[in-house]
Amino acid sequence: MQPSSLSVLSNERSSDGPTHTAGQPMLTLRRLRNAPGFTASAVATLALGIGANIAIFSLLDAVALRPLPYPHPDRLVAVWPSQNFNQALVEELAHGAPALAGVAGISHWSLTLVGTGRPERLKAAVVSTSFFDVLGVKPRLGRAFLSEEHQPDRSGVVMLTYGFWQRRFGGDPSVVGRTVQLVGYDHESYQVIGVLGPDFRSLHQPVDVYIPLHVGAGRTVATDSTWYVNNVVARLAPAATVRGAAAHVHTVAQRLRQRFPGRLDDDQVARATVVPYVNVLVGDARRTLWVLMGAVGLVLIIACANVANLLLARGSRRTTEIALRQALGATRRRIAGESLKESLALAALGGLAGLALAAALLKLLEPSVVQQLPRVTRLGLDPTALVFAFGATAVAALAAGVLPAVRSSARDPNEGIRSGAPTLSGQRHGRLNRSLVAAELALAVMLVSGSVLMLQSVWRLMHTDPGFDARGVLALATAPPDARWNTGRDAQTALNEAVLTRLAAIPGVADVGAVHLLPMTQANWAFPYWAEGHTPPANAPLPSVNFRIVTPGYFRTMHIPLVKGRAIASSDDAHGVHVAIINATFAARLWPGEDAVGKEIKLFGSDPYTVVGVVGDIRQTSLGRAPRPEMYVPLPQFPVAAMVFMVRMAPGATTASLAPALRRAVWDVDPDVAIPTLRPLEDVVSDSVATQRLAAWLLAGFAFVALLLGIVGVYGVMAYVIGGRTREFAVRNALGATRAEIERGAIAYGVPPLLVGLTLGIAGTLATGRLFAGMLYGVRAWDPVTLLGVAGLLGGASLVASWIPARGLGRVSVMKALRD
Q1: pLDDT of residue 76
Q2: H helix intervals, 273-328
Q3: What are the tens digits of pLDDT across the range 189-211?
Q4: CA-CA distance, 434 to 756, in Å (whole number)?
Q5: Distance between CA atoms of 269 and 66, rounded to whole angstroms?
Q6: Dihedral, CA atoms, 290, 292, 297, 303, nearest 10 degrees?
Q7: Residue 392 C-beta-side C-alpha neighbours within 13 Å
């Protein structure tokens, strides 16, 4: 009997009195304090489950559940998300869809700030002048864009974000009206007209400055060349619905197809729709986070089952005490209430510890999450997370406490008072314990299987051949000032050739080449074409091909194999025949079974390029996306100013030793050239799968916790059951049973729930495979090796956990066991 039991028994007759009610919480806490091992185990178990749920809920809330930080965010929609726009098309939708009260286009650019010291690369959003009106945002200082500032001669104005204003201008309010030099769009000098507030958040990626998206007068959807509007945001008109707006947009698209034949095809018109804007921002991250939320939910269920088992075992050891109290007048309701209060106290302590654990986990995850997940600028516990924590704690208290409370109050006091052999209720209680263990193991199998599949998927992604060798290569991106270098084809070619010459002369540089878009990023150019031997489609847009501008040495530096023909040469200049290199996928699509070298491709249907070589496929945007048809042309024949130089380091050279010299080489050509990127190409490749890697490691961590809790649950139940049958095993020993026979008999008691749990876990994994199928690469959601391996691991660990409490049964003293 516990030390507090005498006071409990002596007060049963006055159990309804105010004195006892007031002292009940203290009595519960004293009971927990008098059982430190039990209390610590239960609190730690619940803290793991509750803390993991709070942390992942905070991520889910920040990314997918929290409304957009603008007035009436539910009225903001994305228009035709799969379509690239020009400004004329944006205006056609604004005038032709009455369900949309305001429409604005968004284009993402990089501009270079010059004239204030070392040039700085800025993230810019080029937007329609209606953009801030659509969002419902007012600037902190100055004004927003005027409608007439979409005209080219009026568009030299800029709005600063609060963070950029503080960082670059020290929060000086006199910046409004000042002129700054921003190169990279059409103007070079821009007048600052406003500063946004500190609470403003950009829709997509972080932004430093906003400038107007302009278009010349009289441009139409067919003649406007600004096909670089990445997204269109709109606000629904009063009383309009998403479905109604989608119908209006589809009607506008049908009319535009008829007005401008060949500009929009049937597939583009079919995709014309409207969706809530938050769906576009979140994308695939929503599914990933819901899967993680389901995983930590399983961890909490397992934790609650473990604590329920602990409470059942604790209640069983108090059988005699509870029976005496019932005999003295305590009601079943009173007994059950005390048990629930005990579980509530444990859950409260577990919830507090879980909050601390969640805060630590979020702090640990913040650097990775802010970079990899949309909409997240910082992580922490906010009021919403605290409300969730309260709810998770209450759920845990009920889930862990209801069953033990019902069981403790339902015992027959006559059976509890009698001492002797185990009772029928004890046998039923053992079955209940084993049922909970089976459920724990089933959930653990599902969670561990999912995590192993995710880790396999990420491993396969990381070991997928991108088609080039990133080892020992540094990527150096340049952003020259447009006003100086966008003056002609020869100037841009001369700039990049001068940089190439200086980079190649640096000691420690083995090879160097350049491409205008960094591989393993979402940056892409795709141009329409038609090819020799193929007929251009009638009344439909031309097909498109991914397009890259390269210098001689690019394929050699990147170790991209040449399959046929020759590579780009220095003789391929602006005055010679236009040539192109295509990848193997493009060659197989255009001329299967034929030699592609010597064939002709016309960009935009009119500019001819002769194929002089075929190179191996590379994965341009991500390791998980198959290569697409691609075309490479020499820089002098399609000049641009901004390039990404690929520098292969000689043996012994390092990033730290080469980086200063590489920067100096660029600035020796032009000190105003910004260098937004200088990093190992291996890091770029690794970042392309960072989101999948983060999700896999989080899931693996939660699976490990589930595995640990499941094994601990098996051990706890076996220890409790074997402890309750010590007298039986001692008698069997006295009757001649060997130690090995006794141990095998004890372990066999835990085999049925083990088999049931593993079977249910495998079935559950197969049933929920669709949740994982879209997140996996190179592995099936029902991979038999994984499922059987996980089941074998859990089964073996569970058998060991059963053997540990059973191994000492052969040494039990018969007399001592009978006396106890």
Answers
A1: 95
A2: 277-282, 285-317, 319-327
A3: 899 999 999 999 898 888 999 99
A4: 10
A5: 32
A6: 180
A7: 35
Beta strands in 155-241 (DSSP E): 157-160, 179-183, 189-195, 209-212, 231-236
Q: Are strands 189-195 and 157-160 parallel, antiparallel or unpaired?
A: parallel
Within 10 angstroms of residue 573's Cβ, the number of other Cβ atoms is 14
Q: What is the mean pLDDT of residues 430-438?
A: 75
pLDDT at 14: 44
Contacts of 50 (CB under 8 A, 6+ apart): 300, 303, 347, 350, 351, 353, 354, 355, 358, 389, 392, 393, 396
Residue 23: pLDDT over 60: no
- pLDDT mean over 74-83: 90
Tokens of 684: 């770029």
| Token digits of residue 287 | 């599914």
Is residue 309 predicted with pLDDT exceeding 60? yes
Q: What are phi and psi of 531, to 5 degrees?
A: -115, 155
Question: Residue 185 has which token pair?
Answer: 């769009």
Write down the pLDDT at residue 5: 45
User: 340-394 pLDDT, tens per residue?
Assistant: 788 888 888 999 999 999 999 999 988 888 878 888 878 888 899 999 999 999 8
- What Cα–Cα distance (Å) separates residue 104 from each residue in 125, 194, 240, 722? 12, 19, 18, 71
Task: Give the C-alpha separation, 357 to 633, whole Å.
Answer: 54
Residues of the chain with pLDDT > 90, as a percent, come to 37
Please report, in angstroms and rounded to a whole number, the separation of the first and last CA atoms in the chain. Answer: 14
Neighbours of 469 (CB within 10 A): 15
Is a pLDDT exceeding 60 seen at residue 12? no
What average pLDDT does this structure show over 768-792? 82
Phi, psi values for residue 475, rounded to 5°: -100, 120
Rounded Cα gap, residues 139 and 658, in angstroms: 44
